[in-house]
Amino acid sequence: MRYGYYPGCSLTGTGIEYGLSADAVIRHLNMDMKEIRDWNCCGASSAHNHDPLLSIALPARNLALAEQQGFREVAVPCAACYQRIKAAEVAARDPLKRREMEEVIEEELSGAIVARSLLEIMVHDIDDSALAAQIRRPLQGLKVACYYGCLLVKPRAIAMDEAENPMTMDHLMERLGATPVEWGYKTECCGGSLTLTRPDTGVQMTAEVLKYAKLAGADCVVTPCPLCTSNLDMRQGTAEKKLGRSLGLPIYYFTELMGFAFGLPMKTLGLDRHFVEATGLLQSLPVPASG
Amino acid sequence: MKRIGVFVCHCGSNIAHTVDCKQVADEAAAMPGVVHAQEYKYMCSEPGQVLIQEAVKEHNLDGYVVTACSPRMHETTFRKCAGRCGLNPYMVEQVNIREHCSWVHADKEAGTEKAIDLMRMGVAKVLKNEPLKAATIPMTKRALVIGAGIAGIQAALDIADNGFPVTLLDREHSIGGRMAQIDKTFPTLDCSACILTPKMVEVAQHPNVELMTYAEVESVGGFIGSFDVTIRKKARYVDTKRCTGCGACIQKCPSKVPSEFEMEMGPRKSIYVPFPQAVPNKPVIDAPHCRYLQTGKCGICKKICPTDAIRFDDQDEVVTERFGTIVVATGYQQFDISAYEEYGGGRIPDVITGMHLERLLNASGPTSGKIKRPSDGKEPKNIVFIKCVGSRDEAKNRPYCSKTCCMYVAKQATLLKEKLPASKSYIFYMDVRTGGKNYEEFYRRTQVDYDGHYIRGRVSKIFQVGDRLIVRGDDSLLGRPVEIEADLVVLAAGMDPQHDARELARTLGIAYDAHGWYTEAHPKLKPVETQTGGIFLAGACQGPKDIPDSVAQGSAAAVKASALLTKTELTGEPMIAQCNEAMCSGCGLCVTICPYKAITRQPKQERIHGKMRERMVSTINSGLCQGCGACTVACPSSAMNMGGFSDEQIMAEVDALCQR
Predict the structure, then answer these.
(1) What is the per-residue pLDDT across A42-73, written as a single tens digit (0 to 9) for each?
(2) Disulfide engineering: B476 pairs with which of A15, B232, B457, B472, CB 3.0-4.6 Å?
C-alpha cells in the first residue's frame, strides 16, 4: 500500500467537515490509501512548546507504525499534524536524533518513509486527465482566495511549497474550474491560538485575512488547515463586528470543493456543518449544460 | 661543497615572540655547508638587505636561505637582493617561519623546534639549487579590451592615447554599456548620456581603436605577449559598409519587440539600434523576431533600403587574432528580483527596479521622461524605495554590498521630487552608505531639501489591493511596524556578475570568487591585475562599482597594459618544466596531462652504435609552461623536472626533515 492515512484529532472534532470530505474524496478517487492502525497524537501546539524531544518522538511513532504496516508515504490532511510529522521525518535524517527517538518510542525508524500533506498528494500525484474525468460540476465563476496559513510552508526545512507565494492549491482550484484571486495574505497568520489566549489580538488577525480576501474580490476562502478554518469560519461574526462590515465569506476545505466538483452530495462532504452558510454559494454556481 | 648563508628574520615580534631566532641561527651555523648564519629584526628592510649582500661578499657565499615570512610576500625581494650582489637569483630559498610557524603556534619551544626543521629543509634544498635563467618571450603590440561599457571605453581610449593599437569588443551592437541606460549621475546630476556619448564617439573615431561590436570571445589560447583570441562576429544582416544609418528600415519594419534597453517598457523594431546615440549607429536584425528570416515573408527593410545594405544571407564570422595583452571590462547585470517573492517576485507591475526608474526618468525613455507607472500609466504620488534588494542578504546568497544603490536611490528620490513636486518618497534602508566625494552631502540634500523620508528597517511584504500597493515594514528606530499605501515601489536591485561571467573566466584562465566576481591578484596592492600574466580587470566585473571607480580602474588597467606594450620582449619564468631527453621514453603521458598544452612529442635524431636512429621525445614550450609540475609527477621515467623544484631538491628536503 502506498499511502498510510493519518487523520489526526481535528478531523473528527472541530474539523469534521475536513474529515468527512477527505474520506469521501479519497474513496471516490479510489486512492491506494488506508488509515494507519493505532496512530497517536502528533503533539501539535503543546509538545513543541514544552519539550523538543517529545515534540519529535510523538510524531515519530506514527512514522514507525506506518513503516511497520508497509506504507511508503504518510498522507496528512491537517496542516498542524503535517508540520509535526514532517519535522520528525526531517529529524530522523540525523542518525543521532534518530537513535534518541527510537529509544523513547521503542520502535525502529528506517528514515526512509516520507510525510506528505494531503494537498500536495492531490495536486501532484493525481494527473490532470484523471481529475478532469471526475468533474461533474466545475466550479465555473467561483472566485476563491487560496489561504495556506503558516504550517504547510514554514519553516523552509519542512515546507511543501514556497513560503511567500505558494501556488499548489491555486493550481488545484484552477483544475476544478474555479478562479483563484491574486492576493497578499496567503500565508499571513490567522491568529492561531491567540483567539483563546489574547482574543483581541487574535480576532484582529483573523479579521485582516478575511478583509483582504474580500478586497481581492473573492467569493470564498479555501484552506487546508483545521485551525485556520476554525478561526475564519467560527469567528467570522466577531471579525465582522471588529471590521464594522459584513463579509459573508464561506470557508471551505479544498477537499470539500473537490467533492462538490465531483458531484458528491453536500451532506456527505459536511458542507451543511459550517458556521458561515456554505451551501448557497455552491448551489448558485451555473449548472453545466450536459452530464 | 657549496658555501651557504642562513639569515633569520624576526619580523619585529611577529616571528621572534614565538620562535627563538638566535637558536635557529645557532643550529643553522652548525649545519654542514653553512658558513654563515645571522639573525636580524627586519631582513626585508634596506639595512637587512645590505646585511645579506655584505655577508655574500665577505663569506663568498654560493647561495643563501632566508627564514622569514611567506615567499608570496618577499621571495622577489630576496631574489633581487641576490641579483644585486652577483648571485644567480635562484640560488636563494625563502623558508616560511611566520605564516606556517609563528603565527599559528603559541608555544615558543615547539615553535622554535619547528622553525629549525623548516630551516634545515631550506638549507638541504639550496645545497642542490642550480642557477636558472629565464627565456624571453616576444610581445605583440596590440591590446584587446573585452566589454565596451564606461570602464572598457576608458581603458581603450587610454591605451590608444599611449600610442598602441587596441580592439574594443562588445557583445551588444552598440558600445556604452549600462551607463547609456542611466538618466542622470550622482552626485552632480549631470546627464549620463551627455558625458558618455562624447567618449563613445571619441573612442570610435580614434585612429588606434578598432571597434568590434556584436562580437563574442569564443576561446583564448597562448599566453602573455601573444594571446590568440578566437572571436565570433555575430551576423548583423546589415552591411555596415553600405549602411548610412538613415533609419528608413527601422521606421518601416512591421515587427515590434519589447526593447531590452528600455527594460521592456517600450517597443523596438526587429531591425533596430538600441538607442538614438548608439555607436556604431547602424542597425542589426534580431533574427528570432524578424518576419523575413522566420517565415520568408516581409523583406520590407530590403525593399526600402536606399543603399541596398540588407543581407538576409549574412552568417556569423569566426576570426582568430593575436593580442599582447587583454583588459576584461565585462561589467555587471542587475539582480533578478524574482527571488523576492515577498515583494511580488516581479509579478506586480508597479513594483519596478532602479533601472526601470532610470528609463522612466529619461527624456528619451519609453514615457519621454514623464513618470508614469507601468500598470495604468498613472502619475504616482506615494513612492516607496526599498534598498538592499539582492545585496547584504545572506538568504539570497548576496552577502555583499552593491555599493551604488544608496546613492542611486538618493538621486532618484531627488529627481522624482523635481519632476513631481506633490509626490512623496519613502526610503526603507538598512544603513546609508555614502562613502565618496560629495556623496554624503548629496544624501543630506535628498533628506532636507527634497523631502526624502528615510525609514530604517526592512520591508516584509508588498501586496496589491485594487490599484494601490500595500507596503508593510518595520521602523527599527521607532520599534514599530509601518504600513504605507504606495502607487509605485522601486526595488534598489543590487549588482550581480554577468550570468556567463564564470564561463568567460574559464575561457580566459582567470580566477573568480564564490559569486562570480573576477578576482584581482591582490586585494589592495594589485587591484587591476589578475593572477594570469597579461590579463587585467576594469570596472564592475571585479565587484560592484560606481562610474567614477569604474573609470579610475579603466585608466589603471590601461596603464598596466600599456607598460607591457612598451616592451618588445618579456622575461619569462625560469621555474618551468625541463625534459631530460636522454631519459625520456616518449610515452606521451605528460602531453595529455599538461593543462596548458605546453608539451608536444617531437622526433629526435640520435646516433646509436654508429647508426642514425629517430625516436620520439617530449618538448616543452617555455612560453606556455606555467610551472604547475603536473608532468613531473606523471613522468614514469623521471625525465621531467621542474626548474627550482627538481626531484633531487625535494628529496633532499624530505631527508633533512626525517634525519633529525
Answers:
(1) 998 788 888 999 999 999 999 999 999 999 99
(2) B457
Q: Taking the CB of residue B1, how many other CB atoms lie within 10 A of it?
A: 8
Whole-number pLDDT of residue B624: 76
Whether B653 is in a domain gets the answer no
Number of structural domains found in chain B: 5
pLDDT for B450 equals: 97
CATH of the domain at B449: 3.50.50.60
Same domain membership, residue B482 and residue B350 = yes
First-to-last C-alpha distance (Å) of chain A: 33
Instruction: Collapse the DSSP code of B462 into the 3-class scheme (helix H, G, I; strand E, B; otherwise coil) and give the result.
Output: strand
**Mean pLDDT over the full length of chain A:** 94
Touching A: B residues 341-370, CB under 8 Å:
341-342, 345, 347
Residues B408 and B359 in one domain: yes
Decide yes or no: CATH 1.20.1050.140 for domain A3-119. Answer: yes
Same domain, B465 and B353: yes
Residues B251, B386, single domain; the answer is no
DSSP letter assigned to residue A248: -
Q: Is residue B101 part of a domain?
A: yes
Does any CB of chain B come closer than 8 Å to the CB of residue A103? no
Nearest residue of chain B to residue A167 (CA atoms): B341
Closest B-chain CA to A214: B465
Question: Contact B630/B620 with Cβ under 8 angstroms?
Answer: no
- Determine which of A147, A154, A165, A204 to mutate to test the interface with B (most B C-beta atoms within 10 Å): A165
Work out the minimum CA distance from A163 to partner chain B, whole angstroms: 8
In terms of domains, do B209 and B224 share one?
A: yes
B11, B17, B20, B25: CA torsion to nearest 10: 0
Judge if B488 and B502 occupy the same domain: no
Are B327 and B355 part of one and the same domain?
no
The residue among B283, B314, B345 that closes a domain is: B314
Residue B657 lies in a domain: no
Torsion angle, CA of B70/B74/B78/B79, rounded to 10 degrees?
Answer: 100
ipTM of the complex model? 0.84
Distance in Å, alpha carbon of A254 to nearest chain B alpha carbon: 24
In angstroms, the Cα distances linking A61 to A106, B17, B158, B382, B501 are 9, 60, 73, 55, 50
Nearest by CB to A165, from B341, B466, B470: name it.
B341
Distance CA B619, CA B52 (A): 38
Does B280 sit behind a cis peptide bond, omega within 30 degrees of 0 on the bond before it? yes
Instruction: Say yes or no to pLDDT of B182 above 90.
Output: yes
Q: What is the dihedral of CA B636, B637, B639, B640, to 10 degrees?
A: 10
CB contact under 8 A, A215 and B461: no
User: Under a CB-based contact definition with an 8 Å cutoff, are residues B153 and B197 in contact?
Assistant: no
Query: What domain range includes position B85?
Result: 4-128
Cβ separation B345–A165 shorter than 8 A: yes
Whether the pTM exceeds 0.90: the reply is no
Per residue in A193-226, pLDDT (tens digit) is: 898 899 999 999 999 999 999 999 999 999 999 9
B276 and A CB contact within 8 Å: no
Q: Which residue among A162, A163, A184 places its CB closest to the CB of B463?
A: A184
Query: CA of A202, closest CA in chain B: separation in Å?
Result: 17
pLDDT in tens, B77-121: 999 999 999 999 999 999 999 999 999 999 999 999 999 999 999
Tell the CATH topology of A133-283. Rossmann fold (3.40.50)
Per-residue pLDDT tens digits for B169-180: 999 999 999 999
List pLDDT tens digits, range B310-321.
999 999 999 999
Residues of chain A with pLDDT under 50: 291
Mean pLDDT over the full length of chain B: 95
Given a cut of 60, whether residue B533 has pLDDT beyond it is yes
Largest separation between any pair of C-alpha atoms in chain A: 61
Q: Is B130 on the interface with A (CB under 8 A)?
A: no
Q: What is the pLDDT of residues B124-172, one digit of tens each?
A: 999 999 999 888 889 999 999 999 999 999 999 999 999 999 999 999 9
